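Hey, I'm writing a tutorial for new members on how sequence and structure tokens pair up, and I'd like a real worked example in the thread rather than a made-up one. If someone can provide the structure for the chain below, I'll link this post from the tutorial.
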Amino acid sequence: MADPRYAMYLAGWPRQGDFGLVAEHDGLVGAAWYRTFTEASHGYGFVAEDVPELSIAVIASRRHEGIGRRLIVDLVAACVAQGYSAMSLSVREANPARRLYESAGFVVVEKQGTSWTMVRHAGRSDLRGR
């Protein structure tokens, strides 16, 4: 919360429409959440006021175990259930998690330097079988 680059993603939690999940296995191993922003005040992956932006973190020692995929699958389901038509995120091009986002149906809509903004539209095939 002390870093303003990230505080916007959690300040005032929960606001109307915020949704989050925590993954635990012998303690906290990851978390993922989404929230909407305004044109005047938004995160790095902002595309529109009615498209929530995804944030996700998995403890480094627990990556590549499917935890991030499960969090994304469940967040996509919650997002669709809340009536949103899409979800967005920002990722650095070199970040290995980019492949996870692509496999979950996120597509690049904007590139700025080494940062990509990606969107996953509702109605994409169900992720549970992946």
